[in-house]
Amino acid sequence: MKSFSKLVTSLAFGVVMVIAVSCGPASTPTTNQTGSAVQPTTAIQHLVVIFQENNSFDHYFGTYPRATNPAGEPMFMARPNTPSVNGLTDNLLNHNPNLANPQRLGRAQAITCDQDHDYTDVDKFVQSVGPGCKDKGVVMDYYDGNTVTALWNYAQHYAMSDSFFETTFGPSALGALNLISGQTHGATPDSIPGLVSQGTVIADARPAYDVCSKGTTVSMSGKNVGDLLNEKHITWGWFAGGFTPSSTAGGKIACNTVHKNVGGIIQADYIPHHEPFQFFKSTANPKHLPPTSVAMIGKTDQANHQYDLSDFWAAVNAGNMPAVSFLKAQAYQDGHAQYSDPLDEQNFLVNTINNLQKQPTWKNTAVIITYDDSDGWYDHVASPTSNPSNDPKYDVLNGSGACGGTVAQGAFEARCGFGPRLPILIISPYSKQNFVDHTTTNQSSILRFIEDNWNLGRIGNQSFDQTSGSLNNMFDFAASAHPNAFALDPTSGEPGGSTPLAQSSPATTQSGSTSGQTGTASAQTGAASTVSVTTDNIGNFAFTPATMTISVGTTVTWKNASAVAHTVTSDDGVAFDSGAIAAGGSFSFQFTKAGSYAYHCDIHPYMKGTIVVK
Q1: What does the DSSP assignment read for 167-234?
Q2: For the chain, what is the radius of gyration of the CA atoms?
Q3: Per residue in 485-522, pLDDT tens?
Q4: Torsion of CA 231, 234, 238, 244, to 10 degrees
Q5: Is 1 exposed, middle or buried (0-12, 13-18, 19+ CB in 10 A)?
Q6: Which CATH superfamily is domain 8-22+502-613 in?
Q7: 44-61+114-182+211-379+421-474 belongs to which homologous superfamily?
Q8: What is the pTM (predicted TM-score) of this model?
């Protein structure tokens, strides 16, 4: 039998929880397309932007962090000291100035009608928005942490903002263009009724450089972030579900792969106007050509950085994940009302993030989840006017032909902004934890982060990248990274859905003998002890012993021997945090300093324990 130089104390939970935290090696420079090293300005070597569809902040986070928790739905309980958001107050829920009060939507109401992008005064949603809905009041309604459970859990462990806006008013194409270029001006033709006004895209025109576009198409001039990345030879790509043609028979390219959402609605996977790089000749892949090899994904070849979503995982699995990746789900999973839904969306988001957290690159990765527009769903915050517009036909926010104040001489028209408030989360070992940012930012702030992180410079020509607020307040690059995996179940959104990453522990861990099935226990060097989670007759869990006394240098192991996920989280939120531990998982932590360490379970906050280190 092997001997161990360190004391190992095992806490076996009759119902247990746990997650391992390991600090990875120092970050390494990004490798560019030519093979030379490019040093980002922060610890983020890989950025993944998941660009979802059509949800307002209040529609997903209006009552955060308070969930109803009805029987039969996944439960959500907020962590201690969770910050509040600018959400739906009791007065807005019960005495709303609109013609209807917001109502909670449950998982059984995942499929809703499409609000169809109409925008209005914050007190006139019911009469102005939702023309395709029989119940006009549905525009006011919201989901909580029992349906968008994963997003609420990610917000608990990472950073979110309650002051992030669509860059300009408008539907999907505008949000996507502002994401990659900060610009909706520069369209050809420069005037198409209902689509383009004074050279500015105002609605969902189809990209000219895409053989799968149907109807009126538009091309864009100027630069986008892809051009800037190419100039610096940084690897990048836009990865869209359904981009691979369903058929090329007879030389005719078709994009007709489909999926069915949870409501039985069949939807095409690929939607051309959701792919903004296809508007620009310099970054388009008109015939949807595949990369010449997996090794070339992210580099310039016939695919020209435009790929199928499956190509992203091919690159990740081959160890050549691009520095900057934009992910677009197959449409049935993109969160859009009617043809998608929050449950199918959750499945996509969780599987994506679970897989990314298993990669060796996770230690220097940031994932941004956000949306292209609000769909017209109610949000109680009136958008601040950052860019006025006086288009005589299409601007109506402040009366006919008016959005905000006077337009500066020479400024492009028909770019009224900010648009509606949207959700955004940053999931990264370097994001602040359980943090709500109140800094005013917008979709082009993501563009600015990419430009700043890789020293790309600005796009110019009145791009909003120059004036957009920074996302840096959602990160904490001065603190130590927290690279532990926070695995969720893709169906329920609850913690513990995937096997956590193995922990790098300073000492070998082994199960010890059971000791002291009462309130306290002690361990001496060379011995091992076990603590169980007990269950009383009404199903409550507890750390047993609730208090354990150990020596400096002891490694304590918590084991999850139940089917219920738990966490081991220090009360100060700094010393240790296992994240969610799935059934059969374990978490180890070495105590190197004397003191008293109180801890709890984030999922079941009444579970409390103390480790006394002497």
Answers
A1: SSSS-HHHHHHHHHHS--B-EESS-BTTTEETTEE-S-PEETT-TT--SSEEEE-S--HHHHHHHTT-
A2: 25
A3: 999 999 999 998 543 322 222 222 222 222 333 344 55
A4: 100
A5: exposed
A6: Cupredoxins -  blue copper proteins (2.60.40.420)
A7: Alkaline Phosphatase, subunit A (3.40.720.10)
A8: 0.78
